[in-house]
Amino acid sequence: MSRFDAKFIALSHEAAQCDEPAREALAARLEQGARASRGEAAASFERCDTDGFLSQWAHGISAQQAVLQAAIVRRGGRAEFRGLYLGDERIEAVPCERVWEGRASYHWRLSPAAAERFGRSYIPRASSRGPGRVMKALGLVERVELAPAYAGVRGSGTGLSGCASAYVAAIRMGDPWGTDAVPVLDQAEG
């Protein structure tokens, strides 16, 4: 965890413990910081065109991170994720990627207790066509949920500082198995 992650984690914890007006003020400060970062990126471009690409890129990423953190703050330190459910019961599972014979597939990795209950450690994730055969057979569904989170910068590959691609994402905090999440009710659900 970087010191920047620690800053945004602290903001999420603060947002979870304060009232609506205080959260709104905190979010407004973050958005003001994002505007300042965008202004710095524009000023850098004016000064040196594309020669300052690295500082322009960094200011852009900082602005994106502040905007996402402001949205998380407004939700009380929570962001939307997907969770695995049996009816209204949250199953202890985390999304993961499995590589088998050179091909990647997306699954739910079950906690040891859930794996014992369902007789398997991994369950294939739902696709754009809906839940797969295994999920249907077990009566499981994926649902949107709110869970403690912070805005973090993640990346992959090699290159500049070992990172060829970087992006801003909501990073889940709290219970790794998702038991601290709150389901978001769909319009059809109520």
Structure description:
It is a single chain. 42% of the residues lie in helices and 29% in strands. The model has no long low-confidence stretch (mean pLDDT 86). Strands 1, 2, 6, 7 and 8 form a 5-stranded antiparallel beta sheet that branches. Strands 3-4-5 form a 3-stranded antiparallel beta sheet. The protein has 2 domains: 3-80 and 148-155; 92-139, no CATH class. The protein has 5 helices and 8 strands, in the order αααββββαβαβββ. β6 and β7 form a beta hairpin. It is α+β, with helices and mostly antiparallel strands.
- Mean pLDDT metric: 86
Largest sheet: 5 strands, antiparallel
Task: Find the structural class using helix and strand composition.
Answer: alpha+beta
Helix content: 40-55%
- Total number of beta strands: 8
Which H/E pattern describes the elements?
Answer: HHHEEEEHEHEEE
Rg, rounded, reads 20 Å
Unreliable runs, pLDDT <50, ≥5 residues?
Answer: none
Number of helices: 5
Q: Number of domains in the coordinates? A: 2
Shape: globular
Bin the strand percentage.
25-35%
Termini separation (Å)?
39 Å
What key phrases describe this protein's structure?
alpha+beta, 190 residues, 42% helix, 29% strand, 5-stranded antiparallel sheet, 5 helices, 3-stranded antiparallel sheet, globular
Describe the structure in brief.
With 190 residues, the chain is an alpha+beta fold. The chain has five helices and eight strands, in the order αααββββαβαβββ.
Write the layout of secondary structure elements.
Elements (H helix, E strand, L loop, with lengths): L2 H15 L2 H29 L4 H22 L3 E9 L2 E2 L2 E8 L2 E8 L1 H7 L3 E3 L8 H6 L2 E16 L8 E8 L9 E2 L7
Antiparallel strand pairs: 1-2, 1-6, 3-4, 4-5, 6-7, 6-8
Helix pairs in contact: 1-3, 2-3
